Amino acid sequence: MFEHLEKYAGDPIFRLGEAFHQDPRSQKVNLTVGLYYDNEGRIPLLKTVQEAEARRNANPQPRPYLPIEGLASYRSAVQKLLFGANHEVLRSGRVATIQSVGGTGALKVGGDFLHAAYPDSEMWISDPAWDNHFAIFQGAGIKTHTYAYYDPETKALLFDQMLGQLSALPKHSIVLLHPCCHNPTGVDLSPEQWRQLIPVLAAGELIPFLDIAYQGFGAGLQEDAYAVRAMADAGLSFLVANSFSKNFSLYAERCGGLSVVCSSPDETERVLGQLKAIVRRIYSNPPMHGGQVTASVLNDPELYALWEDEVAQMRTRIASVRQKAHEQLSAKLPAYDSRYFVTQRGMFSYTGLSTAQLQALREKHGVYIIDSGRISVPGLNTHNMDYFTDAMASVLRG
Ligand code: LMR
Q1: Which of 65, 123, 130, 235 is the most exposed place for a label (fewest CB within 10 A)?
Q2: Annotated active-site residue in 124, 188, 194, 211
Q3: Is any ligand 1 atom within 6 A of the Cβ of residue 33?
Q4: Domain spans of the chain, in order of start
Q5: What ipTM did this prediction achieve?
Q6: Does domain 65-299 have CATH number 3.40.640.10?
């Protein structure tokens, strides 16, 4: 019955993560999937998460269905984290938020929603991008294109080209943007550049779709939400997909949110209703555990402060790893410009290594980097840094 189907080649990111685990060598380095590891190479179980779970276990509760839109305490916590507790869009009831199945679930529901609301709209995604963005939105029936974003020569943003291209898009085009820690390049717009971009989005009546999966890993939880808040300040209507996979280290719990900023409370009610209708026909309602845990941390001032601190520790470690990689590479290979390690931010660095260099790193040294040359920086630590920079230097020398 199904013999005619193509074989799935596997996801390019997860496939390489699996290949790493199957590699029998003891000396190897995993820089593939965007997972935060601590200095000992472990995925942390945050203290705040453990505390919230302990409280929950001390008072076991039955597990009925959650509402289609998710837990109310979770949804309002997501809104406060994204927009700031007292933002006008929240006070005036202009944000429709649902609890989603991870950030990816939010993108999928948002894609279905936009395709139904604006069937002729097409989407523009940064070049390069997280590969799954194309798959998710094409799967929702939306035609995708790319806009200029990153210059491999200078390893910097092509801001003028980006601005020029976006200002020429047809009305109601959808523009996918990363408020912080761009995946895969680690190159972000500055606040000043966001301030220049926002009037272009408004003038073109474009529909921004912000994907914020690494809030807190760039400059800070509040700072990383700059673009979200600036767009809300400017009175734009837009969508935001957020994820707690990384900043709560709760990957498998699939905790995310989709928020749509609307122009009135009446519109918000209509939008929330449509989001619920989409959720009901895909997965009916979201899971409970991760939502309850994150909501109890976000809504408890004491736990929130501890969590901020835990996020700061992850952010600081990533920054120090970046610094170390740059220092060691500059010392071992002075002709090689490794400044991108420190100018790029968040989880990822975009090395620009060639296919042959990536292959040599993998085969000769057991250093696993995905085919785009993107490094997931937290895979580096004080124990494997020397080994990594030696391997890089050896391959770059050719
Ligand atoms: C990544 O880009 O590695 C992460 O966002 C994990 C994923 O789902 O691809």
Answers
A1: 65
A2: 211
A3: yes
A4: 12-45+315-397, 65-299
A5: 0.94
A6: yes
